[in-house]
Amino acid sequence: MKDTYHREINYLRVSVTDRCNLRCIYCMPPEGVQWLPHEDILQLEEIEAVVKAAALIGVKKVRLTGGEPLLRRGLTDLVRNIADIPGIDDISLTTNGLLLASWARQLKESGVKRVNISLDTLQSDRYREITRNGNLDGVRQGIEASFEHGLLPVKINTVVIRGFNDDEVLAMAGLTLKRPLHIRFIELMPIGPSNSWTTGRFVPAEEIMSIINTRLGQLVPAKISAGNGPAQYYRINDAPGTIGFITSMSEHFCRSCNRLRLTASGSLRPCLYDGREVDLKTPLREGAGLNEIGDLILKAVALKPDRHHMLDGWQDRRGMSQIGG
Ligand code: SAM
Ligand code: SF4
Known about the structure:
30% helix, alpha/beta, binds S-adenosylmethionine, 10 helices, TIM Barrel, twelve-stranded mixed beta sheet, 18% strand, binds iron/sulfur cluster
């Protein structure tokens, strides 16, 4: 299906829970956020119905996220059922990796092809600080389990924050010289709690590229085998891994945006930045069929703006964990 700006929309990011076992400082306030009551969260069958309706009108790729998706009970059953939906040819997962070591095998068997693991630092004490008490060893084990069980390619999402982890750019990028890891540097977005302190913390991708070019080696454009998301990838020499940049702020990639987001509470959000959402939960609970849900999905697609205006300010009080990252 095409939107008003002739973009092909074929990718649905599904937030399966708003809950999380971490409290990353740029994503949640220290006290955490109020979890949604159970009855407000889409049931697994309801998520499946939305994916079925979306597949009928052209969605091919699904990414499961949250909150922390591995906290959702029945996740592998959901994956298995989504994998059976005709037209869906790619299922991936974004996770903080803490529970991944226990789930990697079952995720692979149920139909997840690959994972993105969020990791902002290689230092245990910093990890504890930025996640407010997370254990870095758990993530390391999750990364190894992803390799072991073939959840490939393994991509690492690193949000770069000035004065916090910008001194680790070379260490993170250097991992790609040794292993087939795909390190993606993400620009900090003024969303949620980070809204108030983004100024001064923001590091443009261009600056990171320049540090890597001068101190680690020349970045040469590269392609990676799976996923055609917003990152631009590079490689140093014949390194097994790649280095990606997600320039949400400094150079938006809205022109090639192909995605919709389904929030944990069952609304379709056409654009991360844009607060407009289309409620699917109420119609689903009132018995709407797949065609009706498909029409509502098309309504959401028609609302997709040409681009975000995050630099002009962030209207939504919720953070990424609540909207669905
Ligand atoms: N809990 C999972 C995780 O951390 O991977 C999935 C959800 S999380 C909201 C998805 C991604 O959003 C993470 O990679 C996280 O770093 C990123 N994120 C959250 N808040 C952000 C912000 N203000 N700017 C940039 N990225 C952000
Ligand atoms: Fe949880 Fe992911 Fe947000 Fe961190 S970034 S608090 S892991 S949802």
